[in-house]
Amino acid sequence: MSTRTIPCFNYPYVFTSLEEDFINIFRDVGRRGAFIAQRDLHDFEQHLIEFTGARHALGFSNATDGLHLALRAAGIGPGDEVIFCSHTMAATAAAIHFAGATPVPVECGPDHLMDPASAAAAVTPRTRALMPTQLNGRSCDMDALQALADRHDLLIVEDASQALGSRYKGRQSGTFGVASAISFYPAKNLGCLGDGGAVLTNDDKIHGTMSLLRDHGRDEAGDVAMFGLNTRLDNLQAAILDFKLARYDEEIARRRQIAGLYQERLGGVAELVLPPAPDTDPDHFDVFQNYEIEADRRDDLVIHLKTNGIGTLIQWGGKAVHQFEKLGFHVSLPYTERMFTRCLMLPMNTSLSDEDVDYVAAMVRQFCASH
User: Fold this and answer.
1) What are the chain's domains?
2) Residue-wise pLDDT tens digits, 257-313
3) CA distance 100 to 323
4) Residue 13, Cα to own-chain centre: how many angstroms?
5) In angstroms, rounded to a whole number, what is the distance separating the alpha carbons of residues 111 and 89?
6) In 3D, which of 192, 146, 157 has the Cα closest to residue 48?
7) How far is CA 90 from the centre of its chain?
8) How far apart, in Å, are the Cα atoms of 234 and each of 21, 24, 186, 240?
9) Helix/strand/coil (H, E, C) string of the chain?
10) pTM score, two decimals?
11) Residue-wise pLDDT tens digits, 51-88
């Protein structure tokens, strides 16, 4: 098999795959002078409501701001604790920190998502909320987390940055808690050409507060009702996202097809732990934002794949949030720490051909067979 060059993610493809469409959108928005909070943003928010089934959707400049302000709008602040899974980006904990609350990291489970038992053990009288990260395009066990929240009268605010379109028991990720945030970073399933995010909520009061917080505290009449920030989703990015959302089902279908190919070609390799294959768990509909596996001799496998032209990624520099010493966490999470010695992401995006997937899988099998 001839050597190929396959990056973990093909950033130029985000633009070149729809280049003429994007140029037309740019011309249309620019010629209308529709740069800030115009109909393109309103249309995108409405279509996001229709896609997710949420009552409200608000575009934000990024998902981190969305999470931060969702916590504030929900009344979370100084003196409160918010439980999150340490297998996530530092942004999840940063949103809690900047809301004035204390982030409390807990273990992930075999699905790489928040472990409900670990979360339950972390509850204290100061705990006000759970912030599950719906990671890699898969939703957590929301029945177990909702039961925990109900027992202790906790709020749920979802970090659904990587999970737009993911479903748990038929319900869309991002619609379980009082609010959630979604990311439109270019490498996301629905990615724009820069930073972008959105917040979903079914709560009218939270929606009203966040509408003010994202736009300098201004109400529809232009009166400043509170101190706010400037964290609106750029109107040009909203227009691009709205165009892509209309075709999003095709994106999901292809990613699920690629995941099925990986399962067919690597499912019998004893040295690997793969994500659940599509349609093998009736409770979950996964959209495969990433394809994160576990592997024996992970670091050697990464070198082997790189030597053969294949890019991989170990999320967040190979550290869980609690392992970044300067953030000041003092907790041991053995399962998560061991998982971070084994995990890596194989290429997963719609720039991949079936032949690309065949090549990646063949190189992985070659390594495992030779060791």
Assistant:
1) 14-245 (3.40.640.10), 249-370 (3.90.1150.10)
2) 999 999 999 999 999 999 999 999 999 999 999 999 999 999 999 999 999 999 999
3) 21
4) 20
5) 16
6) 192
7) 12
8) 18, 17, 14, 10
9) CCCCCECCCCHHHHHHCCHHHHHHHHHHHHHHCCCCCCHHHHHHHHHHHHHHCCCEEEEECCHHHHHHHHHHHCCCCCCCEEEEECCCCHHHHHHHHHCCCEEEEECECCCCCECHHHHHHHCCCCEEEEECECCCCCCCCHHHHHHHHHHHCCEEEEECCCCCCCEECCEECCCCCCEEEEECCCCCCCCCCCCCEEEEECCHHHHHHHHHHCECCECCCCCECCCCCECECCHHHHHHHHHHHCCHHHHHHHHHHHHHHHHHHHCCCCCEECCCCCCCCCCEECCCCCEEEEECCHHHHHHHHHHCCECCECHHHHCCHHHCHHHCCCCCCHHHHHHCCCEEEECCCCCCCHHHHHHHHHHHHHHHHHC
10) 0.96
11) 999 999 999 999 999 999 999 999 999 999 999 999 99
Tally of residues, the chain: 371
